[in-house]
Specification:
GO terms for molecular function: ATP binding; helicase activity; hydrolase activity. Residues 1-164 form the ATP-dependent RNA helicase Ski2/MTR4 C-terminal domain. Keywords: ATP-binding, Helicase, Hydrolase, Nucleotide-binding. The chain has helices at residues 7-15, 24-35, 48-70, 77-82, 89-96, 101-105, 112-136, 139-152. By secondary structure, it is mainly α. The protein has one domain (7-158): Sec63 N-terminal domain-like fold (Orthogonal Bundle). The longest helix has 25 residues, at 112-136. The chain is globular, with a radius of gyration of 16 Å.
Length: 164
């Protein structure tokens, strides 16, 4: 069951096997668009592969919105894209690749607490995608989601307390 993200768009990503072409760090970076909720003035610098993934997510979101409209729901294409925030894709990608927290905070104007909150929520999204992969029998995606989750669960972000 998917609760932490746009259920329809994320389900389409999974069922269309879009995530199979990406490494765990890239997957978790792309999934950040579903959990990051703030606006950012800084423009992320993305690899060509991540740019392709962002374009695919936008394409699926627009297609889902179009289908919802054709079924009589009052969904606008602008709203479908506005709910996706790609401001932390670079930050999460570099975090998953092992960059220190101080280094990733220098990549964006987003506050440290917001970065922590996004990555913690992202771990829950990874668990949900891993569960969906298990349900549909996609062992490759299941394994990648385990690796993605492990790559972000480290250092200050997942400390029990900052004061001990």
């Amino acid at each position: 069951q998917i609760n932490t993200a746009d259920e329809l768009v994320l389900t389409e990503l999974i069922l269309e096997n879009v995530l199979a072409d990406y490494e765990p760090a890239e997957i978790v970076a792309l999934l950040s668009c579903f959990v990051f909720q703030e606006k950012s003035q800084s423009e992320p610098v993305l690899t060509p592969k991540l740019e392709k993934g962002v374009a695919k997510i936008k394409e699926i979101a627009l297609r889902v919105a179009d289908i919802q409209q054709s079924c009589g729901l009052s969904v606008r294409a602008d709203d479908a894209l506005a709910n996706l925030r790609f401001g932390l894709v670079e930050v999460v990608y570099e975090w998953a690749r092992g960059l220190p927290f101080k280094a990733i905070t220098d990549l964006t104007d987003v506050l440290e607490g917001s970065i922590v909150r996004c990555i913690v929520r992202l771990d829950e999204t990874c668990r949900e995608v891993r569960g969906a992969a298990r349900l549909i029998g996609d062992a490759g995606l299941h394994r990648k989601m385990e690796e993605a989750s492990e790559s972000i669960k480290r250092d200050v972000i997942f400390s029990a307390s900052l004061y001990f």
